[in-house]
Sequence to fold (548 residues):
Amino acid sequence: MDERVFDALLKNALEEAARQDAEEAPRVEESWRQRRRMREMLADPEGYRRRLESGDDRRRSGRRGRFSRYVAVAVIAALLGGTAAAYTLRGGAFFRDMFERSGWAELYGDAADTEQLLQMGGGNVGAVVEDEVLRFEILDVVSDGQFAMVSVRCTLLDEGLKEELETSYETDLIRFQDVSITDENGNGPTAYGVRFDFPGKREDLGPYQYGLIFSFSNSGTPLSGRYTIVLKGLAANGEKSDGALLSTDAWTLEAMLPVTDAEAYELDLPCTIDGQPGVLERLSLSPLALGMEFRLPEDAGGEAYRIFSETVIHLRSGGAIDHGGYSCGVSGGGGSARVMLEFQMPLDLDQVESIQVCGEEILLDDLRG
Amino acid sequence: MVSFYLASIRDGTDRARFERLYQTNHQRMARLAAQILGPGPRSEDAVHDAFMKLIQHFDELRDRPEERLSAWLAVVVRNTALDMLRRGRFETDMENVSWEPAVPADEGQFQALVALIRKMPEEYRRVLELRFVAEWSMAEIGRELGISEGAVKTRVFRGRRMLIEQLRKEGYLDGRASV
Fold:
């Protein structure tokens, strides 16, 4: 056999050997971490390579032995390449799945659009903050400019605290006594809330794992850029715990919100609030929320605020979303009120025909011109 | 020093091709890496790093057919995974390698050779893969493995000879073959 013939045979045989090895190896499930970083790579291979080579990437599995407190800050600037592949591989997947499983799809019908969440994905997804006590993983970040959500999985690592929870308080539930959310200038959002999912409530929450969903909104100033979430005062949360403090430590998480904005209109529309004259000054509409700012009589009582939860969003299909299809939050006082209706499903804004509030019907086509 | 990066993956066509390669190969590569390192973060890192190398070499590899690129990826991930194994492996003395007769999956010299490759010591299989499949130069292989170019040539030579002699013993090559 000629040497060149053998080398050609050898090449094909080496390839075939690798193929057979792979075929016979057992299937492995990729971790969420792997799927997430490969998604970033695929969205912008060159950008990802440059960041990695310049030392920006901190997602390698470098944990060996002792844990130490660190903040993995990875600002991800995923560029839309204009291809379908890049579009489908952006963040927002966790929240898309969450909404799709929520059971609100029937109420919203064709007016719901969960896929748009992939366009609203923020940065720092996949970052991990960890010490000997807790591990926090940023699962997802989305923002539509006036309403943002950050999903975090928290894992209790300290075996001593686990035992204390079980034996002293007969619970595996925890909470944080103090939560703060601030932007780069140290300012807090207009409103925020935290939802706690406990072990077993979601498929991805195992023993001593907790799902935290931070939602926050702003009236007027768009949400964008770096937001810092600080959690303090880890406490037991059970009937027998009485909020017993387990640790006075603080944990700091960071989320990067994309730069985007809600549809906003300055209206100065007179309306009636609890029988008295008021003014709808501003309306902002985005897939996740409807924001409204009112001027109302200074002596308006709390009953006046009830009217805001009677807002109805009329759809082009003839359907409507009323107080059963959103959560209403109101803040203000002294002659002003800021209302934020949080939708139960991401809304396709093109399906919104009008907004009925405080006895007035506002046609979106008129606003959009 | 000014550093600049050449854009290997230039446009939407390149990205689409890269994504296709990923979708076609990543599961297979994960299995290969897990065979060597066990399932977990390290084998995932090996897969990740193999795709990074594809990005780095995309310019040179752009015109290769996709089945060849699949083989290239398999070789690179194997090499990367092996690289990540803990140091402490010793060089295998070729004379003390014990061979079981290759049991070919079916008839033929080719399958016999494949079976022998799958059984041969890793340090020889690696250099052969990097040389013949990934088509790296001796110098590149030496840098990758941390050995001299001379040592690479020696391993290539000895690896080929090992396979040829075993094929001959098993009757797949006659004694007059020039190799």
Observations:
- Residues 3-24 of chain A form the longest helix (22 residues).
